[in-house]
Amino acid sequence: MNRYYLYLILLNMLINVIMFVPKILIEYRYNGAVMGTLIAIPIGFSLNVLFTKAITKFPEKGFPEIFARSRKRWIINLLFGIISFAAFTAGLISLLGFVDILRRFVNPEMSFMYLLSVFLAGILLITKLSTERVMYLLEIVLFLNTPLILFIIFKAFTSDYLVWDSILEVGTHLFTKPSLKAIAAASYIFAGYTNLIIFNRIIKGKIKGWNFIMVFFLGLFNLFTTFFIPIGFHGSDGAQEYLYPWISTSDSLRLVYSPIERVIFLFLIFYMGITLMSVSVHWHLSYELIKGTYKESKKKDWAVLAVFACISVACALFFHTLLLNKITVHWMLSRFGLEIIVVGLFYIWARRQKT
Amino acid sequence: MRTIGNWRIYGLVFSAVFLLSGCGFKDIDKRLFVVSIGVDLAKNSSKKYLISLKFAIPSASKDQPNEFSIVSEKADSMSEAVRILKTKVDKEIDFSHAKVIILSEEVVKTSGNAGIYYWFPRRRDVQGIAWVAIGKPTAQDVLNVKPKSEQLPSNAIFLALGKDGSETPYIIPSLLFDFKYRLIERGIDPILPIIEAQKQIFEINSVGLFNKSHMILHLAPEETKMLNFLKSKEEKSAIKLTKGKTTVVIDTQQVKAKYKIHTPKGKDPYIKFEVSVKGRLEETNRRVTNNQLSGYEKAAEKSLNKEFEDLLVKIQKADVDPLGFGIRYRSRHFNNDDWQQWKRIYPKITFKVVTKVKITDTGLIE
Amino acid sequence: MPTIAVEQIKERLKGKIPKAADVVFKELHTKEKYLEVFYIKSISDEAVLHDKLYKPFFEQQHPDEFKNYLESIPQIKSYETEEKTINEILNGVAILFYQDSVLLFDSKVDRNNSVLDTTVETTIQGPQSGFSESLPTNLGLIRKRYPEAFLNVELTTVGKISKTEVMILHDTRYADPKTLNKIKDFLSNVNIQMFQTGEQLLDAIKKSNRALFPVMLVTERPDRVAVNLATGKVILLVAGSPFAVILPTVMKDFMASMADIYQTYWVGRFLLLLRYIGFIISVCLPGLYVATTSYNPEIYRVQLALSIAGSRNAVPYPSFIEVLLMLFMMEMLTEASIRLPKAIGPTATTVGGLILGQAATEAGLVSNIMIIIVSAVAISNFVVPINAFSFSVRIVKYFILASATFFGIVGVVIGFFIFIAYLVKLDSFGEPFLTLVQSKPHKE
After folding, report:
1. Containing structural domain, residue B74
2. Whole-prediction pTM value?
3. How many Cα atoms occupy the beta-carbon half-sphere of A282 within 13 Å?
């Protein structure tokens, strides 16, 4: 029984909506997204299994502890730097993306910085907690929010306006040549295992087989929902016109008997918590890795956090939605490559450690 | 703990600074809620459209019913109209409760209005779940109607279209996002209900069928009902049929329709519809016993088959596709040019309707 | 004949304790023997002295026989150091000088040992009596409810001036030794001059002496203490206070009422759920009202939005002022009804709640909906069973309200999660204050 592991994976699966994954997939729906998704599933899943197997050989240890006694410090520091940068940017993209969504749908007259500041306040506070406490908080947030998202997904699947023919129409483009971008984007669904780099600290014991089975089916379901539900609502031809397919999809649902009639608000409220946690988890990972490269020092800790905040503010000034969207595509590609390299190297290294 | 204290102070200072600059804080009583939007063609004017907004004016006490006011403006585009309308009212116009969009018959019959249609989904504050309908004779007339049973402005339309209130097979509601979906998706075309304004009431019992740009076909109430059956969306309904001198009315409890597109090689393609109707006898002008029911079932099947086929052919002749045969065909064929194929097939296709009627009993009395 | 050492001790003790009106130094004589008694009248029980000391002294003829008697009765202890002896005198012990020995005779008067009824944490069913103000009685109450050989009791004192006796109770099987050590360290480092009751520890736990949330539970119910002992908690009993302190305490304990275990399972669960909902409502509702009326009225359905807009029509100021005003009134009312004598309390609530609310709406100062919200907040706040915690919760809603005023609905949600993060960050002697699944306290 390892619920913490599943939480980490689930968090990534939920946040993909903000990370432009549906947008990328829908964009390539006629050009290889379907095949790409199908290919991404085994790739993402096996990366997940390999890495998890490798890191659970070091029970209750994160990367900084595993490599603490390594001699070639500079290689380790470089590696930590790269991973930490990747994790930080992952958080940053979802943060900027979500603040942009909020500014469009919830507070159109509020300035971007203003909204960003409240998120940063929360995120930095959570980032500084100990790993164990971040996990406890994640558990609470998921507990409060997951029933809601399940309900929304249930509503979406049972809606009269979900046109299965449109979904199937996209399905008929199965045999087009898979697109690499779609593969990269779709494999992000499974990428939650990378959080184990730090969060392995609190994972006790082995991760049993059924955890992987859960991950596999959750991922399958999640990919299907992410990709096809917006198409079912907005059409195989029309879905790509939307900037945020999932947000618009949630605006297409109506709760007849609820005091809140428009599902979009429930959806956004739900995602506020999820985004807060997802960014915090990513940044916590990044923060702890950077902490692993120097000796303990309170001042440096604060400096790292200050740098995080400054970069986000700077990026918020520089990026707008379309640019962010474009960059995310490239980010997904590089993340995909980095993931394969890191997992491969670590797996080989871990095997040699054992023998 | 110190961190929290710091953050709080930091947050407070930060927010206090921003509060001065104003940030969308606007109380609910400083907003004017638009409950429905009407789009007409402007008459005797150089401008193209006449945009009307119906505002709900909340009353302070619950004893008085809520009032409304309608403000109109001639303009060439939606956004232009809204900008000018803002100068005509004292409070901030809030579109977030605009639940009904009414396009007048004239507007939908002309093509080239895509700008207006797209304006609504493009705006964040117009609900994706707003209803779209055709107003007859004009949209303004529809906005002006105030049924006596209405507590809130436009609530009567909300209830009718939302099917929270009356449930009838003569209404096929259409939501904004669905309207947009059908406007774009190749292989399925929009249907909009037609709201006809009379003095104190509405009449919503027919629909207009669109191609991708404008309304092509107007369906009569009975045809609307048939279309609704084919969509399997409405179950509570009544079917009238005559057999000999007897006229009976069947109260349907379950209507299910499914179809399949057959494209046999070398033969003409056809669409096979299977409709099953289950219901009980509600009214008859002569005595009908339970034994005779199977006879009526046969008669009902025959007449329904004919009506369905007539309707389908009529729709086909107009070259519109409200039921989504095209998207069905596309979804079942893997080749990339399936849409071109379908465009060739659709005008020639024939319909075969097989209806199964089951009359369970004759109600409480024979 | 008294020896010189005894004589010296006597003189020194007399010197250390000033001649107050209630300091007694008595000499008793019979033909054969001679006894000196030294005690403070007001805190010693003279009846015990009379029964156990004076009577036998005059009844028993032989000096040795009396000495044997003295050594046999349980109240007697022998002299150790001067300092301790002075402390003992100040606590009501009598010093006996007999022959060549100095003896301490425990004649402490045990006032306030009547068991009180529970007034703060009431339950409908279950035991109705709480602790008394006497330490031995309280210990007795617990022992009676927890008849286990593993119950360990340690004695220490807290408070520079008050030197209040504090008993540390724990079950040696269940309590975590690490936690226990932390608690002992904490107690020895507490910097309080006058220690009167366990509640004082709530603030002392922070370095800054300023805490928002209590991380220990102060209870008046012996049954709660007994139940918590069995789950491995450590109990502090403070002399002179009818409250016991339970450590370490997490949020789950604050949300639990003793009534829960006196109810059937589903009823208990339902009540627990109710409390958590009440907790969330009382924290978030004022903020939500401001966020939804001033930033996002589209959240409501149109019918509700219009009726709120209608009821706010006459209100001349922005929603957050309206909320602040009403919340302020409500806090006043709550405070007033606590302070007022029991007989007038309900009247104040009625006058305040009903008449003021009605009049404020009539006058157009606040909207009808506001009155409903404020009362909902007030009521749901009192659903939290432990007072110390519900007071803290009362403050948090202002934080959420402020963040809602500045950031709208985003402020409410993020503010709420920051609040939750703060709770998760708190810990009570090593145990996280808030987790979804509290780790089992039994550490085998």
Report:
1. 25-219
2. 0.87
3. 23
